[in-house]
Design goal:
Blueprint: E1 2-4, E2 14-17, E3 26-35, E4 38-46, E5 51-54, H1 56-59
Antiparallel strand pairs: 1-2, 3-4, 4-5
Amino acid sequence: MALRSQPSTVNGTTIARLAGPASVSCHMHAQSVTSGGYANDTWSYLPEYQGWVSNIHMQGDAWLDGVRNCVVPGIS
């Protein structure tokens, strides 16, 4: 799965590709992504990579339970 510099496939450049599990610190609504029959606008922040991944690759069309909302100035 592609890890991006911003929660967007348009504005966020790919900074890494993840093959396995990673820690999520928070998530937020941003650009909607469609894949595998799902649509999801939730993006999670992975602090160890300082990047974002679309939740569609982790949870399909769902929000992650128990993860706090990100507050990121300038990103919405």
